[in-house]
User: Fold these one by one.
Assistant:
Number 1:
Amino acid sequence: MFESAEIGHRVEKERWKQESARLRHALLQAQYRLLNEGRTAVLILVNGVDGAGRGETVNTFNEWMDPRHIRTEAFGPLTPEDRKHPEMWRFWQVLPPKGRIGIFFGSWYTDPVVTYARGGETHARFVQRLERIRQFERMLVAEGVVLVKLWFHLSKPAAKERLKTLQSDPKTAWRVTPQDKDNLKHYERFIEVSDEALRKTSLGAASWLVIEGSDPAYRTLSAAQHLLQAMQGALDRPSAADCAATQSGQVGAADRVLQQPPFLALDSQSLLKAQDYTRSLKRSAYEDELEHWQGKLALLSRDARMQKRALALVFEGMDAAGKGSTIRRITQALDARFYRVVPVAAPNENERAQPYLWRFWRYIPALGKSVIFDRSWYGRVLVERVEGLCTSADWMRAYGEINEYEEELCDAGVVIVKIWLAITPEEQLRRFKEREQTVYKNFKITPEDWRNREKWPQYERAVEEMIDRTSTQVAPWHIVASDDKQWSRIDVLRHLCQRLEAAL
């Protein structure tokens, strides 16, 4: 990966003068077009060898463009707070929204490369982390993020000379740290590991550009030209709306084919219809069971071992299936200082400017805490799919992205408990009418609920495909037939306790 970045690339002063003026003007124009159109975000990853000019390049980008619309983030070693969350959590917090540019000085590559190069983890673990990075970057690109990955390189003699030059000048000596000197001693191992990382993560839409950093002019022009080409390519690419307008027949037909319902069993049976909706509990038995399972949940949630675990409880279900009342029975058993309930509605303007999983990453609990999602990231394959709020390509790839997301959470110690509350159409109708006739329940029923009811068959098929594709060993779905609320609440509490016990 690094051979052509060790041959002594140089740019003459006259060319630097001409090209820098052109690129500076073109980058600023592209930045304002990006901002005005608001169709995509640009994320620049800056990695490489110490002393190869990463900092100078970042400063140049901020100088040549409008820094008010650029967010530069530097990532050092993991902090204690970072270690309480999944590995990618800290990067999700600062992703640039559509229309903006983000620069990550150091990135999700830094810790895997440095840790493995220093012998802190096995090769198998290193490969696993690279695969997770590939999955993450594929998702970002699919969500419309322009990913520009820059690696600044120096040969070992050039790196040694660079540090020596910096040290010899009192104005720059402060930039050479003991860590830089120690890194130089391990140069060969660092390059060996970096070479593997770059080769395994140079994806078609997110490939690396390796730039020789010995000549500042060559380095700067190369990085700026690559960034400009990436931005212009994204801006000149037709939007999905443009494609639909110019090729309405072909594109529309292709999308309709993908939106056809999944294969239906020949005997008309289905997962949801196969549930037993007749199960029920008498009031006296319910109260005894409720006291028992709430007490058990209280003890499990306060267990000292939960400090090394977090809980993400996901509730999905048809309208009026009892999500709210079940959540209340759960929170009665929890310590209010250590949990949060997140009701999920349609995304707002800020959330629509980010990849769809962004708004859920913000609420992922730290170790020792819990979050209850009243609806969740499954909206992409349910309401967005049925209502046509995303393309078929979007919701079809979402199954894999969701599975990867949940696997990453589980690897970080998060216990994911997913509940689908199922009811029959008849019971839903009864509850809708009851809400309309009860003053203190009127707020629970809206015209949207009645409209969604008309699409029951489409939602039912989407639910069954969702469960089939996303019920995994680490995060299985638990279906609860909830025509009887008392029985379903106890079943949820029982299942939650069993999952926590198994995790502890």
Number 2:
Amino acid sequence: MGKDALVLDSLFFQCALPYEEILSFSPLAGGLEIQVAAGAHTLARMGQSAQWLYQALWNAYNRRVLQALGVEGGPLFETEGHYAYGEGANQCRGRAKIQLFSDCLCLLPPSREGRRIPLRFLCECKRETHTIVFVLQTGERYALLGLGRDMDPLERQLADCLCALREESATQAGEIEPSLSPAQRVLAAQLLPKGVSAPLKKVAAVLPSLAKAVEQLLSTGKMAETYPLLCELCGSQQEWVGILPAPPVETNPLAASLPAPPELPQLIRFSPSPIDDAPAGEEGEPSSCPWILWSIFPSPNRTLAVVEFAIPGEDTATYLFHTGGNWKSFLPLLARGLEAAGLRREIFSLSNEELSASPNELSRMAVQRTPPLEELRHRFAGRVIHRTPASWRCQLERLFAASPEIRETRQPTNSVPAHRFCGRCGAPLAQGRLFCGHCGEKLT
């Protein structure tokens, strides 16, 4: 049982099954069956070791899946139960290990149906008999059932996590704009959640000082040249922004252990230099920004979304996505996909061949288990390279002109049909049904 693959080794035969290639696995009588794209591998005559192998494989598989989904740290709560969710015409049901982390709830079945449910996008959580239904802002719905006595502890721990996330957002707002009162910080946590894209116009209508501070960060950092141009080309009325604290700069432990070099005497300075006397951030070496920033603008005809990233230590980048003609419905999808990607921008621009290559197996696993990521990859329209402001603007205007105007549709392209779930077996329920078509339970 390796870190990234299961190795089958015999006297004259060896076979490695990478976890990203495993479609599913299930226990058999005294054995185990592992499904891959090329077929099935059957392990038999294992006796009592079969159950041990099944659990060990499940745990190793889950560790790899969590790594691909960007989940860090240990779970705050863990249990097993049944799940059900629908994605378009696909209805998925099964049994999974369920792990709650500080910012997400993970469904980890022994298959590719695993999902990461980000708590920051959770807009509804309701309990129906023996079922808990989670609804996200994008319309995604997930149902958990068969948890038994673990249902109440899960709800309590989930409430604590949601409260902690709101406190983090309020603290971040206070760091951006220290003049906010405690009540205003609580309100800011709802308008501009930590790590989630939000409309800046809505923030400005309620908390103008916070919106002004955010605009100041955007116009003075890495976006100093491109942000005014984006406001000019696209308008700032529909702008969305996202903010995260930048990770601490890693120091070299070997360099830190070495003695500091001796200070040079002031006499070696032959003449004063304006760069030497200038404060950090104005001239000379710029001071590092403590924030990760990204802004989202619509193209003039709203067929493209322009996403500008400003990440400390990385080159500024501009990515464009097709909106499908419906700007309002596309924004939640984009915010959800950016959060799921952990702002790893390359996951959108990779071709299918590059995504299938061995160095990108974790990204491939994340895309397979996150439909919004897959949808955004299909909608990726291109990237604008930052050479000079003039060339950057020219490339952007050329992409705007090449994108035809599309009439907005009433239904969002990424919508998920709203399903009810049976409180007894968790099966999706069709509209107007009086009894569950799977177990026959009478519906109320």
